[in-house]
Amino acid sequence: MMGKKTKTVKVINIDLEKCNGCRACEMICSAFHASEKYSSNNPTRSRIRMIRRPLEDIYLPIYAGEYTAAECMGRDKYVIDGKEYDECDFCRASCPSREAFKEPDSGLPLKCDMCEDDPPQEEPLCVKWCLSDALTYEIREEEVEDEEEEEQKDLTQEEMERSIKALADRYGLDKAANSMARLLKKE
Ligand code: SF4
Ligand code: SF4
Question: Measured between alpha carbons, how far is 122 from 114 in angstroms, rounded to an integer?
Answer without folding.
Answer: 10
